[in-house]
Amino acid sequence: SSSLPPKFQTSDANSFGQYTAEKRWPIIVQNCIDDFSAETGLSPSALAQQQHILDELEKLKREIQEDGELRPFTKEEMELSKVPKVFNERGEELGKQTWVNGEWLYCEVYLYRRILVLFRQNEAWRDYDVFESVKRETFRQSEHGVVELAKWYQSLSGQMGSELEALFQEFVEISLWGNATDLSLLTNVTLEEIQSIQGASVRSDSQERILINDTSLVWQALGAGKVRDSKQRVDFVLDNSGFELYADLLFSLFLLDSGMAGTCVLHAKDSPYMVSDTMVKDYHQLTGDLHDRSFFSCDSGKDTAARSALDFVSERISSAFSKGQLVVKEHPFWTEPGDFWELVPGHPVFEDLKDSDLVIFKGDFNYRKLTGDLRWPRSTPYRKAIGPLAQHGLRSLSLRTAKSDVIVGLAEGVDEKLCAEWEAKGNEHGSWWASSGKWAVICYSDGKPL
Ligand code: F6P
Ligand code: MG
Fold this sequence. Notes:
- By secondary structure, this protein is an alpha/beta fold.
- Helices cover about 45% and strands about 10% of the residues.
- It has a seven-stranded mixed sheet with strand order 1-7-6-5-2-3-4.
- The site of magnesium ion (MG) has 8 residues, from helix 17.
């Protein structure tokens, strides 16, 4: 392991990580301040606590802007807010770190924990999710894509026997590009750009921007559609709520309704995280919103075809949920700073996942954790970059639109070509094509040692 590359640092010159720490984190904290200030009609004590939290958020923002030192969580914070010990342990191992001169992955996970602690320490706001309104509002604004997919799913019912492989490919891509709607990127992408990624025609144009596509290997691994009442279990390590979660739910329904899987297990976060990540309550919120006659504009416009499709999908989801075919659960591991190189036999999360026939890791941050967020040469083989996870029998699939510096598995010359293209488009740093969210990878590992 002495030959491993170092982890990305927020001090890496001209990296997207550096830009994230210097520019994006202060904006993310400011967005928290703005959204939280919009909570009104509070009791006197809740109001006083709100003011206190807002002051602390301002301080946190300045701490980042002034490149302060990351401090350990206090004993009081650890107890009151149940901060896992691993935060301070890892912080100690890393030694002195500042916001803009620290390990990118650790600093980012630490940032969300600092925000969480501020709320947890104030009785009136203990269970508050400061990101909930942005998650819900963005889902509301995805109505067009949501209805389009619901109508399509409704039209498929009853004819899922034919063209199963083509449908499988389509659902993989829907779930993949659903990840393009990560709200933390709203700091530099317009909402129109995000919505445009959701339409069907855009999706097929996007195919050429999938740089690695292992879908046929996954299709084979899941039995190539030969068994129609399968007991197979497929797990999703979820990423963002809103349109991405909705896309993952449709993919799950497809696996169940086609008989390719008997159970789909969705792994959610145990606290508000990375702006838009899914918590168990977000799952309930979103499925409720699908059903709610006052959430989308189609109901006020009396668009009965849209309503019938939304009802169709939401009833399928709730029936799968109540039959236990769709399971949603959380584990603290997913919001801790450890990466997925820790997932080896004996680790409680590994012991759970090992019974699965396929574990799908959604999104960018999960990809960073799969690859250790190490400075791999971009042509490093994927199975090398995911370390132990490629060796203990776990079948895993990463569906990731590229939104950060790390990317592996590219054929020789591809990175150089894309860097040149990206620069020719007028972008300052060619290598940032990989953090633009415009390219994607579908990477499979069968978990078998070579
Ligand atoms: O800020 C770091 C980062 O990994 C970004 O690159 C990305 O925008 C975000 O966090 C999370 O993306 P995702 O929701 O796809 O994991
Ligand atoms: Mg996310």
